[in-house]
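Here's a chain:
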Amino acid sequence: MIASTRRRFLSLSGAAALAAGLPPLAFAGDADWSGDVDVLDDAWSTLHPGLLRYQTREDLDARLARLRADWAAPGTFRDRLRALSRVTAAVRCGHTYPSPYNAGEPIRAAMYPDRSLVPFAFRWLERRMVVTADQSGVGLFRLGDVIETIDGRTTESVLLDLIPLARADGSNDAKRISLMEMRGDDRFETFDLHLPLILPLKDSAVFGLADGRRIEAPLLTLAERQAARPATDDAGDANPWTLDKGVDGIARLTMPGWALYNSSFDWRAWLGGAMDDLTGDGARGLIVDLRGNEGGLDCGDVILSRLLDRDLAVDAQQRWVRYRRVPDALRPHLSTWDDSFYDWGDQAQVSTERPGFLRLTRWDDGGATSVIKAEGRRFAGKVCVLCDASNSSATFQFAQTVKDAGLATLVGQTTGGNRRGINGGAFFFLKLPASGIVIDLPLIAAFPATPQPDAGIEPDLAVATTAEDVRLGRDPQMAAATRLILSA
């Protein structure tokens, strides 16, 4: 499987190398960054396996030409970041974007330079901005408040301008909308980065609410936003998951993330033991909560191994790359955590099946299927998986497997990702030399064996959240999954 997310790679040595040795940044409005577009074009054309999955070469050339003009003309950092974000978003790849996680501190400071962040967390529910947490410090906003305008601009129009800047696979706009929420669970929220690109705010703003109130509130800095996050969110080597057994006999496994690449937490042993214990404890059912989880490692395979009574053969999406060895001219602009990505050697094989690509055999045997082995103590109880539009990499693939194999009931909302295949698995961090901006560049593409719709995975039981649910503190997806298991 291709399974990876780039959100939390800042601690890796590759990202640290990027932070060191950045050239002095020319943030003056008359600096010419147009040469960076040639570097971007060269790197993408040589290395990016999904570059033309959803756009033509002519479309790309036209977008890059506009970016060259924008980056040669006078403009602020945010003007230029907006222009770049439109180009990266047009690739329609959930792993291709200018990343604050993998940039150096000077770039992050330019991305979040002032007091311009809204003083609350929120979700887009039916395309309405619904407050989920007050961060003003003085209780200006209530749970379930619907924000209709910001400084006179309707929030619906704000969302429409934000969607074209968001990274997502194919036509899956649900993922784009999910990224433009401010849930408060990321160090660098996508919404916080992009709102100032389309709606310049500074120091304070006036928020118009659906109930007629108008609230003038101070805005936040990045440091203030991050201070409001849970203290355990960056626990590093600690267990990020919880498993609770309720009085109703249902075990609830909450997994906010699977990005454990650089953690010493022995997640395989813990998760395997937890799943084995479910049978011994006589749990009536299991709810796996993957909401907000973009992916990471293939942690879901351990769960699947305890739901099987025999080994499961799943369709193996073949892996494809665009290069065997990175050209020397590109090496100074790239960094990663695994130097073997610079040269695949004989693991990248020429194939007539997909012209312009090389078949990557590094992690598989080239068969039409891969196997998830039945291991440990099988749990035979009812299983529900709570899913939403954030599930776009390893969690997308997990959702697809449990649905296809009938191993669990998906409850919630359509996933992110795309059934036509995604790009990921291995990455370079591409540093543009004049601007210093860093773009995540996925190296491996997966393609399905048969034609598939340009969409995510639909839940078996669709359950939406309303502003009233937020106001009353209700969790409709968890409640629906609970009812489903208790009725079994």
Q: What stands out?
A: Residues 5-26 have pLDDT under 50 and may be disordered. The first helix runs from residue 13 to 19. The two ends are 32 Å apart (CA to CA).
